[in-house]
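Thread: "does anyone have the structure for this chain?"

Original post by V.I.:
We have the sequence but no experimental structure in hand. Need at least a predicted one for the grant figures.
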Amino acid sequence: MGRRGTTISRTGNNPWRGFTLIEVVVVAAVITVLLVASVPAFQQTFQSLRAEQAAFEVTQLLRVGRERAVAEGRPMAWVWDGAAHRARVEPAPSDGAGAEDTAASGQIITGARLSPQLAVTLLREQELADRVTFFPDGTSDRAAISLSLGASVYHVDVDAATGQPALSAGTAAR
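Reply from O.Q.:
Generated one for you, tokens below.
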């Protein structure tokens, strides 16, 4: 009634054979090397996407400034606040009006806070500036805004005749 002569073989057609420790370690090492090699590419892609999103948000807020100037029949200003790292659209100050009068005279639309690592440069008439004014007839100040984060650079050009902003990817030298 015993089971004499029955032995379990670990070789041959054994369906229960597993991986050895050496095989598992080699596979883990290969996966680790692949992950370490791909991290910089993921970081660069993430940085590029953040710069692209910021450039899109800046362009959209410029469009809002133009649309509000035309719709409300009064000049509106797109203002870059470097300290807060965000842009806003507000009624443009009239001659002699201070910033306090401007803020009290209408609603201010504030854009999202952009990454502190993002470099934003606004040029108006080849000089550094902090605002672009849009007029009720659809025209505006001519302006060029550069946004850069690492190797990602975007340019937003505001056409003076139409007040329309145009977004483009580019190089740092312009």
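V.I.: this helps a lot. DSSP finds two helices and nine strands in the chain.
O.Q.: and The first strand starts at residue 76 and ends at 81.
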